[in-house]
Amino acid sequence: MKADRIISLAFKAYIWLALLFVFAPILTSFVFSFDANKFAAIPWGGFSTKWYAEAFADPEIAKSLRNTVIVALSSSILATLIGFTAAYTDYRYDFFGKRVYLALAFIPPTIPVIILGVAMLVLLGRIGLSGQLHSVIIAHVVYSLPFAMALIRLRLSQMNKDLEAAAWNLGASQWRALKEIIIPFCLPAIFSALFLTKAVSFDEYAIAWFVSGFNETLPVRILILLQREVSPKVNAIGSLVFIVSMTLVMLAQIVFLMREPGSGKGKRI
Amino acid sequence: MAEPLLVLDGVVKRYDDHTAVHKIDLEIAAGEFIALMGPSGCGKTTTLRMIAGLEAPSEGEIRLRGRRMNDVAPWERDTPLVWQSLALFPFMSVLKNVEFGLKMRNIPAAERTKKAMPWLERVGIAKYRDRKVDQLSGGERQRVALARALVTEPEILLLDEPLSALDAHLVIRMQAELKQLQQQLGITFCYVTHSQSEAFAMADRVAIMAEGRLQQVGPPREVYRAPANRFVAEFVGANNLLSGKVKSIAQGIVMVETAAGIMRARENPLLALLPSDMVTVVVSADRAVVSDSAADGENSLSGTVIGEQFVGAFVTLHLDLGDGRTFRAQLQQHALEPLGQVRGKRLSLRWKPEHTVLLKDK
User: Fold this and answer.
1) Which secondary structure element, helix H or strand E, spans residue B35, and what is its range?
2) Nearest CB to B80: which of A170, A181, A259?
3) What is the CATH number for A82?
4) How far is CA B249 from CA A58, B256, B269, B319, in A?
């Protein structure tokens, strides 16, 4: 009995150490974003929010934040829309080359972002779409679409195969069945996909760095700031980006796990 | 007979690698309760799905009230189906589920509710109108599925093993309710099942299918008493099959030579039997009279009781005929009592020639 308790405690300690290892840098950044001292050092120079104030006062940072919001909103909506149609195609139809179609659809996140970024730059440059905000939107749609598709595909796989045919049987045309049955059923996954793709876009700096030109997004701005000077402003922005991303990812999780089919609790969003 | 409601005319369904339905001809009259029955994979569900338009026939024609339906989309038909999986819409309330068919016909919301409520009441689920379907029991869900299918007042209702997920005691109750409902509404029910008891309990006619072919169509009593072939004889009821060779035919009685001796069977002129034809004598389990006197001569066998099955007032005896074959005899509990303890006892079986059915072997 005693040995069991020791092992159990050791495991718990191990988990906490691992979590500490993962989150220590973020925690450090978060703590020092409120430090009055310019250089991160112990002891602390006292609590201050001046770095946040400075960060928001910087017109470059404000502009890049606005860009990031525009890119994240547009690319998440587009990626979710395309992700839904791709997942539905996979659910509904059997066709020649379906495996290849699926493999291609899931490839983008497995390509190193540097390579994806360079490739995007070359392609978008060729067709005259590079260096604009919409270049970043296009690139982020490509990159985040598989996440949206995977989530919606998972949801569709939980659906009783007869539901759509039952709707047809009761007089719903294919469009009507899509609107009345498939989309409402997938709604949790659709919201989840919106949040997750927003988070992906909000964080992403490598591809954005290549294709954004002068319309840099917030993560790209952080990179530029870091190259120029080591300012505690970076800690402030970093903490903000982290909080926003984590909130989005957690929302995606919560929404997806809500309203589980057959949970018997009748939970609603 | 007037033009039947639904006609399947040489309907074939082929898939890439197999044929699910081979040339089915079937006429279904308005207002009848017909059961499509057969083991799994016999093509009964495929046939039902073709009637609903969810599968397209490869060959042949399906006509509803004389109209060719082959190319009519499922949503343009009025052939609602009660699904084996029920396929209720999980994110909708009971009322919304039932109203769905009306909504698809663009009936205004107020009128939809007015039309749906009597159906909820009729199947006894009006008090659950605002519940989600996953908060209901199996039997209640079954009723939602039924109300949802009937709300548009169709001429024909298709049912695909709708009771298979219910508890046994509920099945019996639902069978009675379904039959009653069908009679009150006067509409056609086309009911797919693998269960003989379910088909016989409700249907006016049963259509027995095997390997994509119709084996026999007729009223339950007829199918039970006069199976058309070996498959039906084995699938339906508790029949005993004895193979043999025709020895002679005289005065409507066929003498058949079997491994267990000479059997006399009633002649079926349709078979046009000749001496030396290979035939099967079918003896229904409830036609054999069991006694403890010795077997004598024709239409008589003896065997050792190796098993007893009690089902209420009835008991089925399994008798070992001594050559590896068993014979089933069904009798009333009180008829068995004078024989005392029967297990292991040697008993004789006797039946009348007119209680047999002859099948010609192919």
Assistant:
1) strand B33-37
2) A170
3) 1.10.3720.10
4) 111, 9, 11, 29
In angstroms, the separation between the Cα of residue A170 and the nearest Cα of chain B is 5
Distance CA A172, CA B80 (A): 12
The answer to whether A240 and B110 have CB atoms below 8 angstroms apart is: no
SS3 call for B298: coil
A7 within domain boundaries: no
What SS3 state is found at B278? Answer: strand
Residue at A145 is within a domain: yes
Task: Look at strands B253-258 and B239-250 and give their pairing.
Answer: antiparallel
The 8-class DSSP code of residue B132 comes to: B
Please answer yes or no on whether B75 and A166 come within 8 Å at the CB atom.
no
Would you call A156 an interface residue with chain B, using a CB distance cutoff of 8 Å? Answer: no
- The domain containing residue A230 runs over which residues? 60-259
Q: Which of B92, B100, B150 to mutate to test the interface with A (most CBs of A within 10 A)?
A: B100
Instruction: Check if the beta carbon of residue B211 is closer than 8 Å to that of residue B72.
Output: no
Provide, as residue numbers in chain B, all residues whose Cβ is less than 8 Å from the Cβ of A173. 73, 75
Cβ–Cβ below 8 Å for B152 and A168: no
ipTM: 0.85
Name the pTM for this structure.
0.82
- A160: nearest CA in chain B? B87
Residue A224 in contact with partner chain B when CB distance is under 8 A: no
- For every one of its 362 residues, what pLDDT tens digit does chain B have, with 9 covering 90 and above? 567 899 999 999 999 889 999 999 999 999 999 999 999 889 999 999 999 999 999 999 999 999 999 999 999 999 999 999 999 999 999 999 999 999 999 999 999 999 999 999 999 999 999 999 989 998 999 999 999 999 999 999 999 999 988 888 888 889 999 999 999 999 999 999 998 889 999 999 999 999 999 999 999 999 988 888 889 988 887 788 888 888 888 888 888 988 878 888 888 887 888 888 889 989 888 888 888 877 666 788 888 899 888 877 888 899 888 877 888 898 888 888 888 888 888 888 888 888 888 888 87
Cross-chain Cβ contact A165/B54 below 8 Å: yes
- Residue in A171, A184, A262 nearest the CB of B105: A171
User: Which of A210, A91, A189 lies closest to A143 in space, CA to CA?
Assistant: A210
Candidates A156, A162, A170, partner chain B, best to mutate (most B CBs within 10 A):
A170
- For residue A252, being part of any structural domain is answered with yes
Residues of B in contact with A261 (CB under 8 A): 90, 134
Counting the structural domains of chain A, the total is 1
